[in-house]
Amino acid sequence: MSCRAVFTIAVVLILGIGGFSPAHAVRPDEIMSDPVKEARARHLSRELRCMVCQNQSIDDSDAPLARDLRLLVRERIAAGDSDTQVLDFLVARFGEFVLLKPRLNSHTYLLWLLPPLGLVAGGAVLWLYHRRRTQAARGEQEALALTPDEEARLERLLATEFPSREAN
Amino acid sequence: MIAECGHYALVLALALSLIQSIVPLFGAHWRDVALMNVARSTALAQFLFVALSFGALVILHVTSDFSVENVFENSHSLKPMIYKITGVWGNHEGSMLLWVSILALFGSLVAAFGNNLPLTLRARVLSVQAWIASAFYLFILLTSNPFLRIGTPPMEGKDLNPVLQDIGLAVHPPMLYLGYVGFSIAFSFAIAALIEGRIDAAWARWVRPWTLVAWIFLTLGIAMGSYWAYYELGWGGWWFWDPVENASLMPWLAGTALLHSAIVMEKRNALKVWTVLLAILTFSLSLLGTFLVRSNVLTSVHAFALSPARGVFILMILCLFIGGGLSLYAWRASELKQGGLFAPISREGALVLNNLFLTCACATVFVGTLYPLALEVLTGEKISVGAPFFNLTFAPLCLLLLMALPFGPLLAWKRGDLLGAAQRLLAAGIVALVVTAVIWAWTRGGASLAPLAIGLAIFVIGGAVSDLVDRVGLFRLPLGTVWRRAWGMPRSNWGTAFAHAGVGIALIGIVCESTWNSEYIATMKPGDVAEITGYQLKLEGLDERPGPNYREIAARFQVSLDGRTLGTLAPSKRNFTTRGSSTTETALMSRGLSQLYVSLGDLSGQAMAVRIYYKPMVLLIWFGPILMAIGGLLSLSDRRLRIGAPRPALGSRRLQAAE
């Protein structure tokens, strides 16, 4: 489909319905004075979802909600929270939906384990298949090979057809 | 009148398509040449009528006929001509019409250039193609008619979404559709082969060029879309792992796997069953993309449940073709004979490994995209899967694939020599290690993964180059001989090297951009100077100026480096009165392969919020895919593919000659 087109439509529609003017993601007045803390805030922002947007992180989004969340993250960091504490705080308030990287729990085992398991299972299937194919091919060759009885019969036939061989 | 003609032409196309879906099948069954030839003429006529219908919609948009609902909703009399034309497919109904037009185009191309196909195969392929077409004609006519009239025509249209008023809309959707829909040919060939119950190396040789064409367009379409998002959306990102993007990435991954497995089938008559499955899956993923985007199911499960007509219709088409295709496969695939044997370490083995990684990567994207949907439907729990998830799962798979990539083309068919291949890659490996060490020392223990990833990219590029050097005998043979060998080498070898090098080049761009991107976010008044990685950007002033259907505020930045003026950058904010919405127009300045990127935020009094980025090596991200597409074109121009597959009578002999 016209992916980008529809994506942009979706973005604009969502922004339009919310009734806010498109501004920029991180705004100058939000930035923290301590560059280390600001870097942590930016890093965390990239893992948090703007919940009124389609799959955008709060670091990218222009929505007022994203701005509120960004300020909240910075507030928690300024208050001395660790990264995990900030995330826990937000999940307690907004649910797992706010995390762009879902946590590993009974509901997301399949999601996280499928890529590595797929690779391992795929490899195993290929190996088994290869073994079966080579064995089958060897079996075919063995089936084609003559048994001692057949060898003897062949000898006899050749002997009757070409008596000269016997002489040699 | 034009709208009615367009509508009628579409109905006629449906009628022709229905004939084409049935008659040639019976013809192929009864070996009736006349009935089989119906496929050819209906496919050509069908394309003619769809083209007429599409042309009618273009005329309606160009002449701003607001009595047609589609034009009223998406156009404006003051809109520049180019956007009046591109606006035709900037909406749901029009884009579906473009979709079927391209489908009919591909069908007519098979009809016109498929003279060397066996008659029964051609009839069946075109029939399957017509099944798909019929389903989508019905979809358009029943749920998304672009030719609907309005009782009392309004004076003025509602204008096209401003974000779409960009040259990107002229190129990106048609390219993407040529890719998406192009895979329908591979699907039709696979289904036709399953119906025939016969498949051989010649089949792969017919399918490969069509897949290659679709793949080239999809590669360029995705790259183009990424660049469009980069400069239009204004926050400097070029890939967002958005479900809609993933919808286009999945067919690309599957299509890339298909291209590679078709090589094994063509050369060694092996992997037949798998190749047919991939052909079905690739187009199924294209259909899935259509469903995801067109049904609004991504925005919210509830939005889908509220206005389900379109979504349910596409879901039915999806189930019919994917379910039908896979059932037919399950039923008939066992009748396809297995081909030649090969050792695990061989060209075939390498291509199988490529397929394993690509399908796993595709499955990862698939799960990441659909898991939240499925979980919400099943348990009501809402989770998000975004960029951080894909960076942790998809990226490692790709890196593993890239490590193995340079070995593939160096291994011999049937039984390869891994040690020999490693020896021939020694030079590339040493260069890669040196580059890694230099970057490591230069960035002094910054990000530790970035130098390694760049080293890997260099290894991939070096591998492609050393493969070429090896084949033409550079440094071993006299230059004249080298020249002759380079000229005489099959173009597909050049294609492989170009495409593989393109992957490495894109990787360098991705790593550099995401690791060493610098940004400057501030509020600036006229006269202020921003400094970023040595460049000074002085805000000289803010100008207000009118455009054809908008007003804009543009900022003038003078860019200088070490006191030397390089030029001006003029990013702007546009306000579209009709829709009451605004867009940001970023300004870009390329410095070699890197770019300065400026976009504007809100104006408060005389102060303007600005974001300035310096993005090192960012252009490589898109040069990579362009190089891949060039590789695809070179491969397409290979003599073996150009002359097409030989007729069966000559088949065995020429096939051997190609080995």
Question: Could you walk me through the main structural features you see in this protein, from its secondary elements to its overall organization?
Answer:
The complex is a heterodimer of chains A (168) and B (659). With 168 residues, chain A is an all-alpha fold. Helices cover 65% and strands 0% of the residues of chain A. In chain A, helix 2 (35-45) crosses helix 3 (64-78). Chain A is rod-shaped. Chain A starts with a helix and ends with a helix. Mean pLDDT of chain A is 78; it is low at 1-24. Chain B has helices spanning 2-30, 33-62, 69-74, 81-86, 92-113, 119-143, 167-196, 201-232, 243-268, 272-294, 301-306, 309-332, 347-379, 387-404, 418-424, 426-443, 449-472, 479-488, 491-516, 620-636, 639-642, 648-658; strands at residues 518-524, 529-532, 535-546, 551-561, 564-569, 572-576, 581-585, 587-591, 594-604, 607-615. In chain B, strands 2, 3, 4, 5, 6 and 7 form a 6-stranded antiparallel sheet that branches. Chains A and B meet through helix 1 and helix 5 of A and helix 7, helix 8, helix 9, helix 10 and helix 13 of B.
Describe, in short, the structure shown.
Chain A is mostly helical. Chain A is built from seven helices and no strands.
- Major sheet of chain A: size, sense and barrel closure? none
**What proportion strand of chain B?**
5-15%
Helix content of chain A: 55-70%
Shape of chain B: globular
> Helical proportion of chain B?
55-70%
Structural class based on helices, strands and sheet pairing of chain B = alpha+beta
Give the beta-strand count of chain B: 10
Name the assembly state.
heterodimer
Low-confidence stretches of chain B: 646-659
Computed Rg of chain B: 27 Å
Please give a handful of descriptors for the protein shown.
heterodimer; A: 168 residues; disordered N terminus; B: 659 residues; four-stranded antiparallel beta sheet; 65% helix; globular; disordered C terminus
